[in-house]
Amino acid sequence: MLYREAGQFKTNYVADQAIFPIRQDRIGMAIVLLFAWVIIPAFGTDYFLEIIMINFLFFSLAAIGLNILTGYTGLISLGTGGFMAVGAVASYKLAVIFPDLNIILVFLLSGLIAAAVGIVFGLPSLRIKGFYLAVATLAAQFFLDWLFLRFDWFTNSSTAIEGVPKTLFGFLVTGPDASPFAKYYVALGFVTVFALIAKNLVRSAIGRAWMAIRDMDIAAEIIGIRPLPTKLLAFAISAFYSGVAGSLMLFLFYDSAEPDLFDINLSFKVLFMVIIGGLGSILGSFMGAAFIVMIPILLTLAPDLLGLPISSDLAKHLEFMIFGALIIFFLIVEPNGLARLWQITKEKLRLWPFPY
Amino acid sequence: MDGTAFEFFSIASGFLGGLFVDPFIAFVDRPDKLIQIVSQGLSAGIMYSLVALGFVVIFKASGVFNFAQGIMVVFAGLTVVSLIEIGVPAIFAILLAIVVMGAMAVAIERVVLRPLVNQPGIILFMATIGLAFFLEGFGQTIFGADPKPVPIDALGIPDDKFRVLGDFFRKPVRIYQLDLTALIAGGLMVAAIILFLNRTKIGRALRAVADDNQAALSVGIPLPFIWVVVWTLSGLVAIFAGVMWGAQSQAGFSLAVIALKALPVLILGGFTSVPGAILGGIIIGVTEKLAEFYWRGVLGDGVEQWIGYVIALIILLFRPQGLFGEKIIERV
């Protein structure tokens, strides 16, 4: 009843190829954007904006990046944490070396640097496939971790990299003193723009080439898709997204971070988001990020809410157990991710309330 | 030649010399040290091999890339150590640990593998990462988060060192009995596994499943049973690896990182090859120690964190299936 596309005729190609061809989807999107841009900042508390929303936003950006690589191009990567570290370190260095550089440019440039690093570590992907490639991308993770710890040029001889305070349109948007409000808008702006770009990328010729490579690379090669540029482009764009996410993470969330924050566990976390959310789905990246960000927060709150006296050690162990069990549970219930559940819901909604 | 150019030249030559000349001079100058380092590398390599072996056994028979192998090693080691701590004789502790690992294999098969049958490899891989998280939390709840020393005496592992080749070199080379024990026992275990795979009926069934699980199913091989067998087998390997690795330092959850060290061993040797796991482990172990000792000057500390991956990557560029992996034949 609510979600019915009958009567919505497409009379030209533009309408046929629109990003949201169904009117209800457009309305839904508008509501989501209204919520994100107006209602949440208007009513959200500082805690909610900072700890939950910004956390969620930069992780969804990283998840979109990894989804482009793993979900759309079929190249499993465990190096996301490393690329995020490149982005964070690059933005720190850029902000310190060029104090007058606009903060948006700083983020974009550090994304580009991460993309260059991504291309280098993507080179083996032409010859190595599947899990061999996954392990090979771990090389990126460990090498980059080591690089940033070992050479203190990257951290300006201190133990931590810091989010340098910067202003945008006269507002202080980064650094420890910036208001969560301003930080939230910066993160939201980046995520909105780049999610839109990603959505359009994956439904363009480039995206179709990626999916062809994913489904069968030899067949894709035969129909004229060049594997090396296509795969490297996927690596570059994925690393770009991860790099921007890494610099947002440093500048908007942590303010000060040791390079080993970006370790292998971060890579796994982002990979979980992609798998739980749904491989090959931009919406899924958001859902997965929301899920993985919320679980630890809920798990820490749960003992207090239920009034159970649990020691903090035990609570931490239980958190590990529940997290692991939930991952397995979700994989069993819906291996195609939350995005697939949403799709099923939409199919059902189409017929509701008269299924026959 | 002006000053800056000369400075650059001297830095570059110092770097290249440190990379290509100095280590080899050091090799010739102090052969006793070289042998010492290589023996350390061998002992580390055997440990990597043991962890990698657990991976290979599972991957071969079920195509599951078992990320939880590292945590299984810790879990198994801690089970043995804790049982001995509460006064169980060593031999019973080990037998009980085997039972525990077997029960775990059954549980994993029931809860994780069976519902996920026929899913793509990456889903199963993610499930084993979930399993790793679960086991880490579970193990810390039971055993506590602190590392425990392995009671070497109770297990009857000799803990002494030989000094050999003292006549040839300035200083004798120290060989630890612990390493020798690991080497000999590890060798015996590998031999036993190879015999088991090649000479028994279950072993044949395992290889059949590894070859083509649908064909194996159609000739009446029960897949769930085979999975339990391989997970138990890798549990056995994990017990051994956990105890030996724990004996060298301590049995604790920080050991789980060795799983990550075993990954380059895997891609080097090939995911499906038992000899590959052994040889790959030795290659990675020895190169790591050599690099850490001789190339530290130019490359800096902590080279061993990633040098294994770089070696594995270089070899993969020439042999994408690893040293001993099955040749990848692609059809459209």
In brief, what are we looking at here?
The complex is a heterodimer of chains A (356) and B (332). With 356 residues, chain A is mainly alpha-helical. Chain A has helices at residues 13-16, 23-43, 46-72, 80-97, 103-122, 130-150, 180-202, 205-215, 217-222, 227-254, 264-277, 282-306, 312-333, 338-351; strands spanning 161-162, 167-168, 171-172, 256-257.
Strand content of chain A is: under 5%
- β-strand percent of chain B reads under 5%
The coarse overall form of chain B would be globular
Please compute the radius of gyration of chain A using only Cα atoms.
21 Å
SSE run of chain B: HHHHHHHEEHHHHHHHH
Per the CATH scheme, the topology name of the largest domain in chain A is ABC transporter involved in vitamin B12 uptake, BtuC
Strand order of the largest sheet of chain A: 1-4
Give the C-level CATH assignment of the largest domain in chain A.
Answer: Mainly Alpha
What would you note in describing this structure?
- The complex is a heterodimer of chains A (356) and B (332).
- With 356 residues, chain A is mostly helical.
- Chain A folds into 2 domains: 1-8 and 22-39, no CATH class; 44-351, ABC transporter involved in vitamin B12 uptake, BtuC, CATH 1.10.3470.
- Chain A has 14 helices and 4 strands.
- In chain A, the strands form 2 sheets. Chain A has a two-stranded antiparallel sheet with strand order 1-4.
- In chain A, strand 2 (167-168) and strand 3 form a beta hairpin.
- Chain A starts with 12 loop residues before the first helix and ends in a 5-residue tail after the last helix.
- The model of chain A has no long low-confidence stretch (mean pLDDT 85).
- Chain B contains 15 helices and 2 strands.
- Chain B has helices at residues 3-20, 22-29, 31-62, 69-85, 90-113, 121-143, 152-155, 177-199, 201-211, 213-218, 223-248, 258-269, 274-294, 296-299, 307-318, and strands at 161-164, 173-176.
- In chain B, strand 1 (161-164) and strand 2 form a beta hairpin.
- The longest helix of chain B is centred in the N-terminal third of the chain and has 32 residues, at 31-62.
- At the A-B interface, helix 6, helix 9, helix 11 and helix 13 of A face helix 6, helix 12 and helix 15 of B.
